[in-house]
Amino acid sequence: MKVLGMGNALVDMMTELPDDTLLKELSLRKGSMQLVDKDFSIKALEQVRHLNRTEKSGGSAANTICGLASLGIETAFIGKIGRDRLGEVFQNDLKHHGVRPLMQFGDTETGLALALVSRNGERTFATCLGSAVEMEPSDLDVELFRGYSHFYIEGYLMQHHELIRKAVELAKEAGLDVIIDMASFNVVEENLDFLHFLVEEYADIVFANADEARAFTGCGNPEDALNAIAQDCWIAVVKTGEKGSLVRNGKNVYRIAARKVNCIDTTGAGDLYAAGFLYGLLHNLKLPLCGEIGSILAGKVIEVIGAKIPDGAWHEINEQIKQVIYKQVE
User: How much is the pLDDT for 1?
Assistant: First the structure.
């Protein structure tokens, strides 16, 4: 089993906020992902230059693909970057995690996601897409998809309807299962009709958090939202933060508990949950066990700043996953 991902190729600049004053000054809705232009990005960077920051490859799909690669799954990633320092940061970080970069180069700078992390761990993104937004349907052909079993695509790309439609059509032509992560409630709100079309016609597996599921279905209760999503796909997953997650396949509904950890930064929690869940699925584990592995990875990543689990933590994670796999044969 091999997984191909496609998403916005961004460098995450994780920035710890002393309080939420800056969010108000920049008119950023706490917990959202806002697309901003280059001028806004420059202004925001100037205002956080005195704060602690780190740079890593980012973007929702890239985070998930890196997590899968770190677990030993063969993966690749399609995206577009600039010929600049941040582009090198992005590619090198993918390679470091064992991902095959299928990168193309745009005419502008590499996209930057300024992640502003509040004291309670919630993160707000001001994202300047740069070259990431230059990816076009003509950049894709069916040969990119051949040899893979699953295609993972992030909701943050949903503004580019023609690109997404071409990608999922090629994925299906090549025989891949299509996995969609809805990514952000405001993205769902802005692309609701297209997302419904995409899920109904192409999706095999759908991931959403409670806010995204509510925006997509209109159901305030996460389980009602789960049931609505599951009408149009093979597996539906609704992540409910510290309450855990809900998974439905056919008529079967499973509730998976979250791990009790010290939350530092929620960036990447959903992305790494998806990586863990898919790892279990690719190894034919029962869905509750897939969710349990997802919770292990989500719990680990929120204990650190940023969307990447430190290299030194993967041995412990693999030991915990072995214990979960043993449950399959008990």
Answer: 84
